[in-house]
Amino acid sequence: MSKARKLYNLVHVEPKGYIYVLGNHRYGLEFRLKNKKKTNKKSVAVIQMNGSSTNWTDITTQGHWKADSTIGKVLCWCGMREFDVVHCLNLWSYVDNNPSNLSGKSNDILNKIENDLWIKQVLEKVNIIILAYGDCKGVDESTIKERKKKLKEMLLSNKTKIFCVGGLNGSGNPKHGRSWNKKPEMNKFSIKNI
């Protein structure tokens, strides 16, 4: 069993009935910290790039899940900081674990409006927002710019504190969850950097 599965239970997938298939759309995963007698009511939304290969180990029963390496890193990092609830969200709802396959696709293909509605709903109920979308390699620059503008609008209408983990990368973007190595710290993030 992975370290992440020892720490957290997957309690909700949006949309309901989601299974991992390339090109499907996933809006969010909600995890709850296991085996904790006293909760501290700390919740976090982590916004990464796009959905990858996290899936149920048994699609029929949906009793257990298998985290991809990025979700695993994010959950382990959040577990060390004792977040009770972790919401894994994405800039784009389109599911594909190979970013180069996103090239040439517009935001209309990469993102469904339901994803934005889900992001807004989750952001209203968390204590902290962490941006972790990285450089969005594989996605066309104009598509990235348009999507970041939409994200900025959603964040400006919300008063929750925004952070990144491990600082900014060389391009000035918040580091992607797969780069959360060697116990990086959380840093305040300014919306003007989007």
Identify the strand order in the major beta sheet. 1-2-6-3-7-8-9
Strand and helix order: HEEEEEHEHHEHEE
Q: What is the helix tally?
A: 5
Structural class determined from secondary elements:
alpha/beta
Approximately how much beta-strand content do the residues carry?
A: 25-35%
Number of strands: 9
Shape estimate:
globular
How helix-rich are the residues, as a percent range? 10-25%
Distance from first to last alpha carbon = 37 Å
Rg from alpha-carbon coordinates: 16 Å
Average pLDDT for all residues: 88
Give the low-pLDDT segments.
Answer: none
Tell me what the structure shows:
There is one protein chain. The protein has 194 residues and is α/β, with parallel strands linked by helices. Helices cover 25% and strands 25% of the residues. The strands form 2 sheets. The chain has a 7-stranded mixed beta sheet with strand order 1-2-6-3-7-8-9, sandwiched between helices. A hairpin with an 8-residue loop joins β4 and β5. It is globular. The mean pLDDT is 88.
